[in-house]
Amino acid sequence: MALSQSRPRRKQTGARYKDYRKKKQYELGREPSFTKLGKKRTHMLRVMGANRKLRLLGTDTANLFDPKSKSFRQAKIKTITDNPANRHFIRRNIMTKGSVIDTELGKARITSRPGQDGVVNAVLI
Question: Is the CATH number 3.10.290.70 carried by domain 29-124?
Answer without folding.
Answer: yes
